[in-house]
């Protein structure tokens, strides 16, 4: 317990044995601050963004059709004429578009297995596509100017092609695109559309059963 120091003399002392309690200075670390407003945590923002990304991916995958329906062998035959193949192709492209996109990505991934740098670049590009195009809720602003979605799409496509071509995997990328496109075209032409759901097919006015 600290010693009590005598009070300074005054003109009218109230007592001859008055003592003062010494001032005890609190360090800034022990002082409590009041009235401060906590700032928003960046962790909550990152969690919200990841939740949105997960929801967008689930929504996109929700448009995928069952693989069993897509590769139903009983629904394959050769079209007799071009006029029969054209509406069949358009209907299948519209109906199985998410399945076709997954097939293209799988073929591209397999072609880049022996090029790890290209795989890393591909992952970064996919993140850029998600951030700048698919998961944006607001228009993209650059120097206080709104950038049109068409411009964003064009720039991302050009950057994607250029970066992948500069990773010494040009032949693999081109071959995977050609193989994937061939698989999509062959399936879309050979797959009959008479057993597809009418509500999910909108192919420019063509009836689902027109290519049966």
From TrEMBL:
Keyword Transmembrane found: yes
Membrane topology: Multi-pass membrane protein
Main localization, broad class: membrane
CC per GO annotation: endoplasmic reticulum; membrane
Any one Gene Ontology BP term: vesicle-mediated transport
Keywords: Membrane, Transmembrane, Transmembrane helix, Transport
Function: May be involved in both secretory and endocytic intracellular trafficking in the endosomal/prevacuolar compartments.
Name of the molecule in the record: PRA1 family protein
Species of provenance: Helianthus annuus
